[in-house]
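I'll show an entry:

:::
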Amino acid sequence: MRKIAVSKTSSIGVVQIVDKYYVMSFSEQQNEILKELTEEEAVKFLASLERTPSKAAPEFSDVLKKVTKKLSNKKGSSK
């Protein structure tokens, strides 16, 4: 699934359910199918995913290591 935030509490995404793809809206109140993609639209969508890899969120352990390193560098430079 690919989602794009529209506001703090809502987003629009493309969802695969079995062999069909749907454009959906997601909010705190409801989730709604806006459109079923045709086979041609789904193929174009999948091709676009291959061309633009998604940015994965950093692992928490990596963020922790980075922050710890910055803090130890500041601690060492303040002596």
Notes: The chain has a mean pLDDT of 82. The chain has one domain: 2-77. The two ends are 50 Å apart (CA to CA).
